[in-house]
Design brief:
With about 90 residues, the protein is an alpha+beta fold. It has 1 helix and 4 strands.
């Protein structure tokens, strides 16, 4: 293989690698905006009969008395509602 083809192959591989790395997210949501408080506690998952995770819910640890619901899908919007069961901070 000629030096010109080797250089072209290296340039192509480097370009693809950098492009893929620029598009990748290291984890969901952490590269979108600056983070304040985080709550990584487990959530309750409500599955449909087909076994797919359809709804996630948990108390909002930094907003006592509030619960968040989130559904699968790219068009889904999380919903926060009043829930007396979430009455204590850190619940």
């Amino acid at each position: 293989m000629s030096p010109r083809r080797i250089a072209a192959a290296i340039l192509c591989a480097a370009t693809l690698t950098l492009t893929a790395a620029g598009c990748a997210r290291s984890s969901n949501g952490t590269l979108d905006a600056p983070l304040g408080r985080q709550d990584n506690s487990p959530a309750q998952i409500i599955n449909a009969p087909d076994g797919w995770r359809n709804v996630m819910t948990k108390c909002v640890s930094f907003q006592p008395g509030k619960r968040i619901y989130e559904v699968r899908g790219t068009d889904a919007v999380p919903v926060i509602v009043d829930d007396p069961a979430c009455g204590k901070a850190g619940h």
